[in-house]
Amino acid sequence: ENGLPQPPNYPIDERYFSDRFDFSEGNLPWSLKFLKFPIDNYFYTNNSVMFKYPSIRIPVYLIGGLHDMYCDYTFRIYDGIREHSPKVKIAIGPWQHSWPEEGEPGPIYDGKGDASRWFDQFLRGRDNGFLNEPDVTVFVQDAFKPNASIETVPGYFRYEQWPIPSNRDRSRILFPTANHSLSPHPSNTTTSQWKDIQYRAATGSQTGWWWNEPAEDQRPLDALTDTVLSFETETFTTSVEMLGFVEVSLIVKTTAKSAHWIVRLEDVWPSGEVSLVVGGAFNGCFRKGTDNPEWIVPNEEFLINGTLRFGTWTFREGHRLRVSVNNAAMALGWPTPYQMVTSLLVDDSRTWVKIPFVQRPVRPIVPPFTKVPYDPPVPLDGGAIQARGFYYNHTFDAATVFDRTPSRTTLRWSEGLFQNAFNTRALVAFNKMTFYRDDEHPESSSWEAHGLYLIVLDITPTTPSAQVVPGTNTTTLYLKDLIEQIERNFTVSSDQIIGPIDVPNVDLSNHRWILLQSFIQLNSTENSFDISVNRTLQENGAEVRKTGISQSVERMFH
């Protein structure tokens, strides 16, 4: 997406090639940048907002989604700048990587309307009461059963205070025990025991490939008792809300010089299903700080601590809370390269999790702006293509397909999406990814990705659909036909296709259209990553330019 020409006119010229399309040391693909800079160093101090907090002295509106892996930044920035900024507002909804008016899963509201109020206050100087409103709005989730495709999350929006005031803070520290319970009382250190975990790089797909996204049932993963350690509370006798960051302190050791620990907070239903609430990952090489990595000394115990992702949840009466620990998350993080056994010290006062339970306000206030439904713009000509700001229509559903053997897993995922942006252009986005992991050779992992963007300009609700007669017009390319051709290259499962998409079947010879494709191949060994990234750009069916870059990157604590 960051390789596309600049909207709304999408100029293809030398400036575009230099700034966005061509690869160079000054314009590297994001995936390659991440591999080159795994340690907190000058790259992050020069570019990350977290090192610029004191200089931010303007009003700031932060929007996040509970099911977006970037949700944490809202509270991190808020904590860092609120002493310097005249007003900081946070709005956290249940959606993934999206905006309040178009988010999935819902519920949604008119985010653009609230943004307009914000700009009226701080750009136009119209006092509309924004300065007097509470800073923080958050969606408090009710429990919901595992469902990676959930459309609407149960729960409600409310104003909240941050940090949670002490008179409503009901946080509890829980200690894992040798009998796999979570105890509110620390054990005497003389009774501490080590519990072993067999590292298997090809496990952990149930957590998804995007932290915090709605996930499938965690039972199949937790059932791998030699690979996963799970600890549970007693059954809740009353419902309790959680809001904030789960803190984690673990005493661990491993037989290898590098290892990851994956920690998941889960909700166990009376009927047996296990919902993923929040999770987090910890790299043992960064135990002394992300700017001070060290290889692990095999079989030497050490402390890893930190927080899981921000989350809200309601644990209902009759449910149990579970904490599960393992060393791999399939698509969420690259496997460490060594076969190993890790160990967790339990029945020890230094190993614990702190759950941010809160007392619900006596009279929770639902922010008025979250009650405003989004009224999408209607075409002036009364055309039929209408939706919430951006019109989305899946050409085929997201699907995940596994090829599994006892020690290897190949995961294939793809999704296709049609978007009509304010009824002025059509954009079709397709993505396909393949992950390969091998328990016996975790160093030999791979990831392949293929992304495609098709942009057709001047598409409106009144653009006539072509009446295509079978057997005629064989040299003319039509939009629907092109999309169907693309679909065949991107589907990974025959049941993904959900029928014809709602798009005018226009004759593309009468429109300017751009097709951008990107291909990434990433392979690892014990000591290096080998990455290849290639892009191809077409305009009106003719190839305009190709670019590519291939590099081998030394593996540094990855």
Q: What can you tell me about this protein's structure?
A:
11% of the residues lie in helices and 35% in strands. It is built from 7 helices and 25 strands. Strands 5, 6, 7, 10, 13, 16 and 17 form a 7-stranded antiparallel β-sheet that branches. Strands 19-20-21-22-23-24-25 form a 7-stranded antiparallel β-sheet, sandwiched between helices. Strands 1-2-3-4 form a 4-stranded mixed β-sheet, with helices on one face. Helix 5 links the parallel strand 2 and strand 3.
Main features:
558 residues, 7-stranded antiparallel beta sheet, 11% helix, mainly beta, 7 helices
Short précis:
By secondary structure, the chain is mainly beta.
Termini distance? 26 Å
Biggest pleated-sheet summary: 7 strands, antiparallel
Question: Number of DSSP strands?
Answer: 25
Number of H- or I-type helical stretches: 7
Low-confidence stretches: 378-392, 468-474
Q: Radius of gyration over alpha carbons? A: 25 Å
Structural class: mainly beta
* Helix share, percent: 10-25%
Write down the overall mean pLDDT: 89
Portion of residues in beta strands equals: 25-35%
Molecular shape: globular
Give the topology.
Elements (H helix, E strand, L loop, with lengths): L13 H8 L8 H7 L5 H6 L12 E6 L6 H10 L6 E6 L17 H12 L13 E6 L13 E6 L11 E5 L5 E2 L9 E6 L20 H4 L6 E4 L7 E5 L2 E8 L5 E9 L5 E10 L18 E6 L3 E5 L4 E7 L14 E6 L5 E4 L1 E2 L31 E15 L3 E14 L3 E14 L7 E12 L21 H12 L22 E12 L3 E12 L2 E13 L4
Parallel strand pairs: 1-2, 2-3
Antiparallel strand pairs: 3-4, 5-6, 5-17, 7-16, 8-15, 9-14, 9-18, 10-13, 10-16, 10-17, 11-12, 11-15, 19-20, 20-21, 21-22, 22-23, 23-24, 24-25
